[in-house]
Write a structure and sequence with these properties.
The complex is a heterodimer of chains A (277) and B (239). With 277 residues, chain A is mainly alpha-helical. Chain A is built from 14 helices and no strands. The longest helix of chain A is centred in the C-terminal third of the chain and has 35 residues. The chains are: A mainly alpha (277), B alpha/beta (239).
Chain lengths: 277, 239
């Protein structure tokens, strides 16, 4: 049955038009600018810019950070989602809100918190100094700041998924003699594995693209930078060719993320469509 | 195996689901837990299975206290109201699950598992359905798979939660007959929950009538009809 709100073609096309113009102007157009600027001086110049030592170093460092942060936050996300959906405890709603803090707090604040904690003048600074542990303005700081920003990415998707699935199958497994380990790997995990992968992809995209939080804890000149920081560095040095070439690498990542996300979404929806109830 | 519960109490938050419930089910008996929704019958079934821990009271299997044992240690065959089949596994794997998760020493080998599953598929008249997914089965077929899955581990007691609740009238009648027949052959101690008195009276040797977390009366169908103990039982059974 058609509802009244679906029937007016003028309103329909007006609204679709507004969204299209918006998408074109704010998303598609900038992408073309980046690609145009990156390739303006020819493919050779582009490859050369992309292959410069600083750019390669930035890509390596970004991959390293992501490689550490994504598994860490995946583990955390699964633990958090499991605890929240399987146990009854006081302050559960508060815990869910706390997990989401990094989504609505400015990433710069996240970086600053770590600076205040681990920096030379920070709370733990003197102790770290005395034990020769470097966190601020070094890799651990970047990993921590990135982990903070991407903290909720896996848990946030899993919690509603696991709530919706309920515990019936797990209870069935229990009555059939499965212990906790078998229960998780044979029953729970297969039902959430695509959800976990989905969260990991989003977490990875955010980890590689994070600027604000990492910019606070990275810092000094000779240190290696992550891709977004290196792009800013190039840009401020008027090295536009290299800046846009490296930016195109992040674009490629965004494109891969988008494709994977679409594939996973169609996979996750498919069983729901054929399931009769 | 006999099942005994003594003085069971269970609260959810402030709601008293069970208050001082005692019941003895003899070996080979088929007993119905009958009552309106929220009367505590499903909670008692879950307490017996080990899916809920009672606040007070004891659960005994053949005289042995299992109150503090986990569900996976008690291994009571449990059939869930909405079947709770493993959606990502084939019918075969669903039925084989209880055998595959056994400790290495007890676990049958692959050939024995296959043989056992095929016997069960035959028992529930679903030979050749082993490769299907639960989503490709009808309600009645799912119900039978859930039953076969719980029987695979050779449970000492069978617990059924509203086993016919979600089925249409015809399938319901057939399954009811099938279950009675199955019970007459195996004499597996069986408890089933229902809110349908006709179902309870037709199937069960004895019926326990629940209301507001208490057992109002236990007895053979005829005895209940002839001699209802209080107004609730009289009204609920419409005698």
């Amino acid at each position: 049955m058609k509802r009244a709100t679906q029937e007016n073609p003028v309103v329909k096309w007006l609204l679709i038009g507004v969204v299209l113009v918006f998408v074109l102007f704010f998303l598609i157009f900038p992408v073309f600018v980046v690609l145009y600027e990156a390739l303006r001086l020819g493919v050779a110049a582009y490859v050369g810019a992309l292959g410069s030592p600083l750019s390669i170093s930035a890509v390596e460092l970004t991959l390293l950070v992501a490689l550490l942060v994504v598994p860490l936050n995946t583990l955390f996300g699964v633990c958090a989602a499991w605890a929240i959906t399987h146990f009854q405890f006081r302050g559960k709603a508060l815990l869910i809100s706390l997990i989401e803090i990094p989504l609505w707090v400015s990433p710069v604040i996240g970086g600053l918190v770590f600076a205040l904690l681990f920096g030379r003048q920070g709370l733990l600074g003197p102790w770290l100094d005395a034990h020769n542990i470097e966190i601020m303005f070094a890799y651990p700081g970047m990993v921590l700041a990135t982990a903070f920003v991407t903290f909720p990415m896996v848990a946030r998707g899993l919690i509603p998924l696991m709530q919706q699935q309920g515990h019936a199958e797990e209870e069935a497994a229990l009555t059939l003699g499965a212990n906790g380990w078998q229960l998780f790997w044979r029953v729970s995990f297969p039902k959430i594995k695509w959800g976990i992968l989905y969260g990991m992809i989003l977490c990875n995209a955010r980890a590689m693209g994070e600027f604000g939080a990492v910019s606070v804890v990275a810092g000094s000149v000779d240190n290696r930078l992550t891709i977004p920081l290196q792009i800013e560095h190039y840009f401020l040095d008027f090295d536009l060719q290299k800046a846009f070439a490296l930016a195109s690498a992040l674009l490629l990542l965004a494109a891969i993320t988008l494709v994977l996300k679409l594939v996973l979404e169609s996979r996750r929806l498919a069983p729901n469509l054929v399931r009769p109830h | 195996m006999s099942v005994t519960v003594t003085h069971i109490a269970k609260k959810f938050e402030k709601f008293a689901a069970l208050r001082d419930v005692s019941l003895e089910v003899a070996t080979g008996e088929l007993v119905a837990l009958l009552g309106p929704s929220g009367s505590g019958k499903t909670t008692l079934l879950r307490v017996i299975a080990g899916l809920e821990i009672p606040d007070e009271g004891q659960v005994l299997f053949q005289g042995e206290d299992v109150t503090n044992k986990n569900a996976y240690e008690r291994r009571a065959g449990f059939v869930f109201q909405a079947y709770a089949l493993f959606q990502h596994m084939s019918v075969f794997e669903n039925i084989a699950f209880g055998l595959r998760v056994m400790a290495r020493k007890k676990r049958p080998n692959a050939a024995a598992i296959k043989k056992r599953v095929e016997e069960l598929l035959q028992l529930i008249q679903l030979e050749g359905f082993g490769d299907r997914l639960p989503s490709q089965l009808s309600g009645g077929q799912r119900q039978r798979v859930a039953l076969a899955r719980s029987l695979a581990i050779e449970p000492r007691v069978l617990l059924l939660d509203e086993p016919f609740g979600a089925l249409d009238a015809k399938v319901r009648k057939d399954l009811r007959k099938w279950l009675r027949h199955f019970h007459d052959q195996t004499h597996l101690t069986t408890l089933f929950v229902t809110h349908d008195q006709e179902e309870a009276f037709e199937l069960a040797d004895r019926v326990a009538v629940f209301n507001q977390g208490r057992i109002q009366q236990v007895g053979a169908p005829d005895a209940l009809r002839e001699n209802p103990t209080n107004d609730f039982v009289r009204e609920f059974l419409e005698v």
